[in-house]
């Protein structure tokens, strides 16, 4: 059977995606200071629920209130917020859409203003730009007890997500966050059985999968976002990824989303600030569909459906990748911030390219620009593509500073 963008996909657990277009995770920064969901998040996801996507994946919701990526992340712990989570699930599934929560723990990849004592597998400092508001503390190596706690935090959060009415979860095991830190030999230098061989480095991920599955039962989708490579010398390599996928074949994972890079090497949005880690070839120099050539080799190994996210803009290229069998699901992130009806337009044949404002923008402006469009949609407005990159940066920084202040005040009160 030839597969097209509108072909439904049945996952191993039995759940079905209505088509092959997924909204990939984008951190929203729209929770309240306690990390609970808000009516603004509901407005945003009600809009995306009408987009025609086969799958919506939330931004990174955190499993520990200290280990968050930015102020106003949603946090899922035993400190309240269940009612708000339920309302958000109802908004995002309102059109019968699959709506999964991405669960994450930042580990060492967090600004010091958010967490001055981040946990990580080992004491390896982040090699990212510092200054002008960016600062990273030296991480603290996790004890065995802290590792077990983190595993339990993931399974607790997955259970809460299921009880709230979401239709699945995705584990954030990519982009340099905690699970990805365990997978990488560069950041995981442990000498115990959580470090060393790939089997040991992957143990944290496999224990989380086991704990989550035990809570949610056999019919609830579990996805994983994984780096096709860290694209960094000594990091989690493409060969390592293929090996890991072989091991994942024996688990009950339902979908593997492939991406790449981290804060140290932002390949995730197609930017390379250091050319190391994988041999340079033409595919890596591609300006669009960054990971599709890596995906092909991984899909050959995988018994689990593969979603690929990063740089898909040309509808013909999406269709070709699907019909060649390079992948099973196309993930789009930034196009959803530029137009909340993008899947409907693709599936109806109205457009042959999705918006790509990032191609005409200073690379430092794209993250704030997308953030500002997400903020607009959360108030019921449509994106405004005329907003200039500089303007977006100014208002994004102001908005982030306000959220950080609210978080600091909340933490003070919580501590008192
Ligand atoms: C504003 C913004 C926020 C993002 N937040 C997340 C996130 O919370 N979790 C995640 O896995 N990826 C996140 N990403 C990465 C996207 O999911 C995606 O991998 C990346 O943007 C490349 O896809 P695209 O070219 O279709 O935008 C974010 C990207 C953007 C632009």
For the biggest β-sheet, the strand order reads 3-4-5-8-9-10-11-12
Q: Which descriptor suits the 3D outline?
A: globular
The CATH architecture assignment turns out to be: Alpha-Beta Barrel
Poorly predicted sequence stretches spanning 5 or more consecutive residues: none
Name the CATH class: Alpha Beta
Distance between the termini: 62 Å
What is the fold named in CATH at topology level?
TIM Barrel
**Quick one: CATH superfamily?**
Aldolase class I
The total beta strand count reads 12
Number of domains: 1
- Ligands, ions, cofactors: flavin mononucleotide
Sheet of most strands: 8 strands, parallel, barrel
Order of helices and strands: EEEHEHEEEHEHHHEHEHEHEHHHH
| Percentage beta strand | 5-15%
Q: Could you say which structural class the secondary elements and strand pairing correspond to? A: alpha/beta
Number of helices: 13
Short description:
The chain is of the alpha/beta class and 416 residues long.
Label this structure with key terms.
binds flavin mononucleotide; single chain; two-stranded antiparallel ribbon; 13 helices; 416 residues; TIM Barrel; 8-stranded parallel β-barrel; alpha/beta
SSE topology:
Elements: E1 9-10, E2 16-17, E3 21-23, H1 39-49, E4 55-62, H2 82-92, E5 98-104, E6 119-120, E7 140-141, H3 144-164, E8 168-173, H4 178-183, H5 198-201, H6 203-216, E9 222-227, H7 238-248, E10 255-259, H8 292-301, E11 306-309, H9 315-324, E12 329-332, H10 334-338, H11 342-347, H12 366-377, H13 389-415
Parallel strand pairs: 3-4, 3-12, 4-5, 5-8, 6-7, 8-9, 9-10, 10-11, 11-12
Antiparallel strand pairs: 1-2
Bound molecules: flavin mononucleotide.
Flavin mononucleotide binds at residues 24-27, 59-60, 102, 172, 175, 225, 259, 268-269, 309-312, 332-335, 367, 370-371.
